Amino acid sequence: MQIESVKTGNVLIVKPVEKRIDASVATEFKGKMVDWINEGNTRIILNLANVDFIDSSGLGAIVSSLKAIGGNGDLVISGLQETVMGLFRLTRMNKVFQIFSSEQEAIQALSKL
Question: Would you call 72 exposed, middle or buried from its count of C-beta atoms within 10 A (0-12, 13-18, 19+)?
């Protein structure tokens, strides 16, 4: 799975390049996220602007990433397409994750932590 990452101050921005986070890439995605967290990145923005489909495995990998951070930081979401936002609403993940319409809004929110 191809994922772009860039560090802005103390915030890591992670942006999957693929359009899908599903069972075929969920394990690899989770592994990369945990690696970044173990390297000390505890303020992460997951920019899902390119992603138009997430299945239960993909959602599980995102939730596992949040759990890996624990109380030591935060994982927020930005750039959700309407189909993915629908999934977040349906599963009530919009109550678990802070969701921002833009990456810039997310950076400002995480920089205040």
Answer: exposed
Domains of the chain, with CATH numbers? 3-111 (3.30.750.24)
Q: What is the pLDDT of residues 33-77, one digit of tens each?
A: 999 999 999 999 999 999 999 999 999 999 999 999 998 899 999
- pTM assigned to the model: 0.95
Q: Are 92 and 63 in contact (CB under 8 A)?
A: no
Q: Which alpha helices (H) appear in 1-113, and where do they start and end? A: 26-38, 56-69, 82-90, 103-111
Q: How far is CA 20 from CA 11, 16, 59, 69, in A?
A: 24, 9, 11, 23
